[in-house]
């Protein structure tokens, strides 16, 4: 796995599963929800780690790098309701405009369905996971909202050098074009796994040509 053995890291801490169902506490704001999720995933323990690191540096008479020291303290401050990392996820998912709005539920008016789906994704992004496995996140959303969410995820994984595996049913052409690689599965078997740009050439070499004026995603599902 990127040159590392499975015994060199903890897979459960490296990967996260994001369900198609949005389960939240309606009375909490978006910011509180992400901060709570971060602490539940162990991110809050950074303060204790930083304290121990500072103690050892003083004992060994080591002077820390000033830039790194400022960043570590910024993301690890004890008692804060939010941190730089939480604010960063809010910004990149477009949730900063509703950060202090209650999530809401059937009885309490809150954020929109698209924003709620982004909160579900954000709950995992604030954790330590670098690999995200997302199950039909477009359920109940229109194509425009799905495009915005996938676009936000694309931006995030490119900036953070992460990985997102997203299963979608009948994605719109503009959403399909956001992906770097395509995995096509039929009856539990992988039919194609590779760059999006080469998928049509692959199937054409197998005798399947995409008709004109037909979306590539629709063609692949029909194949």
TrEMBL record:
Membrane topology according to the record: Multi-pass membrane protein
Keywords: ATP-binding, Membrane, Nucleotide-binding, Repeat, Transmembrane, Transmembrane helix, Transport
Compartment annotation: Membrane
Residues of the signal peptide: none
Residue ranges constituting the ABC transporter family G domain according to the UniProt record: 170-219
Keyword Nucleus: no
InterPro entries referenced in this protein's UniProt entry, alphabetically: ABC_transporter-like_ATP-bd, ABCG_dom, P-loop_NTPase
Ranges in coiled-coil conformation: none
GO molecular function: ABC-type transporter activity; ATP binding; ATP hydrolysis activity
Protein name: Pleiotropic drug resistance protein 1-like
Species name: Trifolium pratense (Red clover)
């Amino acid at each position: 796995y990127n040159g590392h053995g499975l015994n060199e890291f903890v897979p459960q801490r490296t990967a996260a599963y994001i369900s198609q169902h949005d389960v939240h506490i309606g009375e909490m704001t978006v910011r509180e929800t992400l901060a709570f999720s971060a602490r539940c995933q162990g991110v809050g323990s950074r303060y204790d780690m930083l304290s121990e690191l500072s103690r050892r540096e003083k004992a060994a008479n080591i002077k820390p790098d000033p830039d790194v020291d400022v960043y570590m303290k910024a993301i690890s401050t004890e008692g804060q309701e939010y941190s730089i990392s939480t604010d960063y996820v809010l910004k990149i998912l477009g949730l900063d405009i509703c950060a202090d709005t209650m999530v809401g539920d059937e009885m309490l008016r809150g954020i929109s369905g698209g924003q709620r789906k982004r909160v579900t994704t954000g709950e995992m992004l604030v954790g330590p996971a670098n690999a995200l496995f997302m199950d039909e996140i477009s359920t109940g959303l229109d194509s425009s909202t799905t495009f915005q969410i996938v676009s936000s995820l694309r931006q995030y994984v490119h900036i953070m050098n992460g990985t997102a595996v997203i299963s979608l049913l009948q994605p719109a052409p503009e959403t399909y074009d956001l992906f770097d690689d395509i995995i096509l599965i039929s009856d539990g078997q992988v039919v194609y796994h590779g760059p999006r740009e080469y998928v049509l050439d692959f199937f054409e070499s197998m005798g399947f040509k995409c008709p004109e004026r037909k979306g590539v995603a629709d063609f692949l599902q029909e194949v």
